[in-house]
Write a structure and sequence with these properties.
The complex is a heterodimer. Chain A has helices at residues 23-29, 32-54, 86-122, 124-139, 142-153, 157-167, 170-184, 187-195, 199-235, 247-255, 263-290. Chain A is mainly alpha-helical. Chain A has a domain at 82-276: MetI-like fold (Orthogonal Bundle). Chain A is elongated, with a radius of gyration of 24 Å. The two termini of chain A are 35 Å apart. By secondary structure, chain B is of the alpha/beta class. Chain B has eleven helices and twelve strands. An eight-stranded mixed beta sheet of chain B has the order 6-7-8-3-9-10-12-11, sandwiched between helices. A four-stranded antiparallel beta sheet of chain B has the order 2-1-4-5. The longest helix of chain B has 18 residues, at 182-199. Classes of the chains: A mainly alpha, B alpha/beta.
Chain lengths: 296, 318
Amino acid sequence: MAAKTLAAPPAGLVRKTKRPRFGWWSRYRRNKLAVFGLGWVVLFFIIGVIGPWIAPHNYAYTNFLAANQPPSWQYPFGTDSVGHDMLSEILWSVQNALEIALGATFISFLVGAALGLWAGLKGGIADQIVMRLVDFMYAFPTYFLDLILVTTFGRGLAPIMFAIGITGWAGYARLIRGLTLRLREGEMVEAARALGSTQRHIMIAYLWPNVRNSMLVALAFGIPGDLTVMAGLSVVGMGLRPPLPSFGNMIAQAGTNVLGFPWLLYFPAGIFAITLLSFLFVAEGLQEALDPKGGR
Amino acid sequence: MPDNALLTVEHVSKRFKVGRRVLHAVEDVSFDLPPGTTLGLVGESGSGKSTLGRIVLRLIEADAGRVLFQGQDLGKLSQEAMRKQRRYMQVIFQDPLASLNPHMTVGRAIEDALIVQQIGTKQERQEMVDEALRKVGLSPAVRDAFPFELSGGQQQRVGIARALSVGPRLIVCDEPISSLDVSIQVQIVKLLKDLQQDMGLSYIFISHNLGVVRHLSDTVLVLYLGRVVEHAPARELFRNPRHPYTRLLFDSILRIPKSSATRRKFVAIPGEMPSPLAPPPGCPFHPRCPIAVDKCKTEPPPLVEVSADHVAACHLAG
């Protein structure tokens, strides 16, 4: 054997133990904000499912005798001007918020993925069309597009979800087109082909791991973005039609009376803000933890 | 075709459509590669070296001509048969990091080659991975490292180990040292040479580093605009280049003069390589050729044997 083994690589470069299978979790765990965010997000999801059952009152039940109550044991978050229990309303809102945010993100992602894949794989004229559309969507204030769509199709759950979803795909399309282009012509795929990999194997073992993390992170950033848009629609009176409970409505209404009954603003706005931040913390934590170069 | 050739390339051409125009990447190239030998492919950027390497591996389909590997016409093989055949023909890339999957550890990357070719049981594969790493001079301990955690030279060794693991007879080395530091280049060249001696490998060595090509190659093929301009045993070619392009190519190598008496003026090849989208008529080299005559502008020169085993495509070389 002519080739001599080189001097042992420097310590620290080579680990003695096997790489832990869930390496990403040990990296994620070091970001305390991300851990907190994940806890809150999980709680938010649980409330989204069971909220209506644990709510002490019906969110739509008006009780003028108990209007404008400050927080008490009976009404922990107080009541509004028509006697809605704020705690119950918040518990119900979570479900609507999640349905719209998840649904809209999913629609955006589907549209973006389809167009991005088409542009990236086909190239040429398809790429030109998609990228000019993306430019248009970036240049056009999508918020106004949302308003137009919602005024046209109504203020229910489905129209709002659809409106936010159909206007938010540009980022996904651009991301997926970029990934596709980079990977399709890359040496990694060529090397895999040269080894004799089947198309299926290349997809599963080479392409998917390299797009999975970027997509997951993009989705994690997309959800709080869509929550914000949804609340923004309520602020101009174009969100979910009351009495359907939503954070945006509660915040918008409380804002008109913040000096007299401040708890109407504090609780929904506080919880909404913490939720948005939690989603962002999770997204950032994922971004760091899923990158194999993110340290060990 | 000599009976003993491992690889025979016959009149291979490849054209790419670029918009409405046609790029002549490789034009009518033929050569033989006996087992255990190295063919050097040299030429400027855009001369079709890499395209030719990929055609040999059938990573790109040729438009004309055929490639015989171990007596089989690769173009006639089914997808599945070709996939199996790839075990015997491997490739090493210029940028080792780009050719490795960032989500696979070194050990997993090499094992994947074995899995794809359905070689060995899980247990045997682990030993084969260690063996492949040892062969390229790496400690088996690097198997749990990710590619980005290694140096450029180590990454290239991993690339070589992956190619070796499946037991190839031919390795296409596509500029395997161009992206490495000079000190590492020497190590990798030496490694390739040692592996060839130990395992009887054949190489197609693509490079624009003429010194390394001279050191490694048994025969050298000089490409210009996708055409063979000269093809000869390495010693013969470097001692006695017949085509004006080859001569200019050799003259453009920077050498450290031994004394001021041997100091020469640096000579670059005049002009630019013409666009392969619009190759000049006649001899493709005539616009830059210092000795071109009228005939060169109209009549493409055939490849003629100028001495034993030495062919050149020049009207004035005979």
